[in-house]
């Protein structure tokens, strides 16, 4: 893990296309601005985890449905 120290209005570059800027520091909270291409998804960690969980549940449901359809097709 890379650990950096930044002040308000200072930036961090990630590759050529992503820039993170410290917008404000208020108590124990930091406001960040992230500039990235539209094809790159940016989510808070808890939102990303929820999306991954929903995707896994949908994949399992699809797999279960496919197995059920295969089983019913063999029985016909």
From TrEMBL:
GO BP terms in the entry: bacterial-type flagellum organization; mRNA catabolic process; negative regulation of translational initiation; regulation of bacterial-type flagellum assembly; regulation of carbohydrate metabolic process
Keyword Endoplasmic reticulum part of the UniProt annotation: no
InterPro entries with a match to the protein in the record: CsrA, CsrA_sf
Keywords: Bacterial flagellum biogenesis, Coiled coil, Cytoplasm, Repressor, RNA-binding, Translation regulation
Entry coiled-coil feature ranges: 44-71
An annotated Gene Ontology molecular function: mRNA 5'-UTR binding
Main location: cytoplasm
GO CC field: cytosol
Pfam families per UniProt: CsrA (PF02599)
UniProt-annotated location(s): Cytoplasm
Domain of life: Bacteria
Role according to the record: A translational regulator that binds mRNA to regulate translation initiation and/or mRNA stability. Usually binds in the 5'-UTR at or near the Shine-Dalgarno sequence preventing ribosome-binding, thus repressing translation. Its main target seems to be the major flagellin gene, while its function is anatagonized by FliW.
Entry similarity comment: Belongs to the CsrA/RsmA family.
Database matches in NCBIfam families: csrA (TIGR00202), PRK01712.1 (NF002469)
Quaternary structure, from the entry: Homodimer; the beta-strands of each monomer intercalate to form a hydrophobic core, while the alpha-helices form wings that extend away from the core.
Protein name: Translational regulator CsrA
Native source organism of the sequence: Gracilibacillus ureilyticus
